[in-house]
């Protein structure tokens, strides 16, 4: 059964939560520079997947409120740009 990962991003912070673990919140960019919300959503997913890999988790299911990212990651026709 895949491990669920929840992600979210804003202009200044990203957040992810690996199932049954505490949430992780990080600045998008260490210098305080802002990112677009879409950039932050993807950064949250990348950081979460890197952390899952570091923990030896090999099967994941990513949950996000980013419609764009979900469509692009699931390869729906709407997500292909």
TrEMBL record:
PROSITE patterns documented for this protein: RNASE_H_1 (PS50879)
InterPro entries: RNaseH-like_sf, RNaseH_domain, RNaseH_sf
Record GO terms (molecular function): nucleic acid binding; RNA-DNA hybrid ribonuclease activity
A Pfam entry, by short name: RVT_3
Occurrences of domain RNase H type-1 (ranges): 1-81
Name of the protein in question: RNase H type-1 domain-containing protein
């Amino acid at each position: 059964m895949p491990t669920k990962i929840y992600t979210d991003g804003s202009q200044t912070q990203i957040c992810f939560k690996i199932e049954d673990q505490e949430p992780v919140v990080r600045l998008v960019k260490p210098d305080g520079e802002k990112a677009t919300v879409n950039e932050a959503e993807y950064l949250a997913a990348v950081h979460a997947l890197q952390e899952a890999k570091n923990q030896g988790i090999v099967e994941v299911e990513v949950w996000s409120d980013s419609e764009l990212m979900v469509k692009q990651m699931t390869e729906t026709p709407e997500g292909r740009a």
